DNA sequence: ATTTATATACTCAAATTGAGCATATAGGTG
DNA sequence: CACCTATATGCTCAATTTGAGTATATAAAT
């Protein structure tokens, strides 16, 4: 008979911890890149957020500038071998990293190792035309009539090379999963014979990673979160490269500066860079007060009279 | 000694279930408006979303058009009397309701019963100038120096009458809570002596409600979710009143139609309304295919050359 | 001296947005 | 019926915002 007490459930935390190292967007991983850092939710933390913060800072020895909840999963397949259910709560965290000592820090992996088709900084990734689109075409043609029309619309809406939308990253990943082009361990699905380029991860960690990056890509457009990834002083060029790294696409330099400056997000420190080759750049710092002043968001409704 | 098995945890689901009844945005409640519908997560559902959907549809006998996860709470104070921890996962759900039989359906309550300062459809709510702003002023003046400057900036950013931002609803609620102007049961805080107008709820349900409405207010601007609340055929006037009800502010009629039409979200049914007093209006229906075609989002980055 | 990089200032046309005028067509009223 | 009120719909126009350049400045490298 059903007990009225709590069902045995384990609460697990997953973190998508992001840093920029040498203009490359990186995520902290374990097991040679196959796992996101995860840990149990300890009972002695007052809140979930505090738990994540304490736990990540203990692991990385870096202060966590920004933490945001991503999503909670409790799917059926998420069961331990002991039979109890697992609830996974995932978080996005942003941290500041100095330039890498060597090539890259152990554990830090570039976003685009997992999603090579998402890096448009140097133009359209070849993997799209070469491997992904043809296979999506086959996937479309594997059915007929209305189902085919639906598949075609989804592919066209999410993979339009002539009008790429970097925010649709999660939806693209999910579509590739449905089309059987990316493997995902732990799900009951026939194994993917010939996956598309891009490293897989264990369990659904690649999906969680996609969720985190997609959220970040959306957020940098209306909230000043990039600054959590920058060192205190930076040039507008560095700031631009940071945004480009996250969004995965090149920006128009002059318009980027105009936007940043007229939003009043930064102020000059007075100092300049030196020895970078090319004209020295002014150094800026983020005006942290702005966060309090303008809790802005992107309105678009056609409002009426004042 | 600490066991390695799962800590006893109960998973609870909360729902912010929204419907429009007679142009009034309503939320389904229990206990005479003091509780959001909540229930345990049954182990026999494949996913959380399926659990919410089944459970809500069983309670309301209405199909749930749209479901979205809001937030997961596991705060310290969220403990049952039995000593185990409670994880609350809250959802936003949209459903279609016909016009009310009588005054309003039992259980359905207007948003603005809980947040009267958020309804700007008839201009600035008097409660703001009369009750809220003076008390926030006192709250600012209760401290000095930098703390006072910070409080002032937060109040000015979130309660600017001359530039009201309906999306900041959650932040405003949280500020009122911090300022001791709204009560919230279950939190260890001194009871609020003289709360500002607006019905309270048990536990943190009013906060969850604010989270849901704020999310909805943000979402209607870039996703066609309003249509989940409309009957299949509607006039542009009805659609506008629906958006106004959710956003809590009046819209410019001609610009609203322009926006809706040029986005290609709707198509004429061919029929017209009758007997409404005034010129008859064309009836429209939502073009559901559009969701597949354009998985749009609101870009704002200054992109570079194609 | 010239080339190559980067930084920064300024311009201009196209597109979007905010605000309003004008007209159409119903119901209600004296 | 003539007129008023209410809603719907079509269209215009100026202000702002955005996308895409051109032009110039200042460093390092050849």
Automatic annotation (TrEMBL), chains A, B:
Protein name: NrtR DNA-binding winged helix domain-containing protein
NrtR DNA-binding winged helix domain sequence ranges: 226-286
SUPFAM superfamilies to which the protein is assigned, alphabetical: Nudix, Winged helix' DNA-binding domain
Source organism, top-level taxon: Bacteria
One Pfam family in the UniProt entry: WHD_NrtR
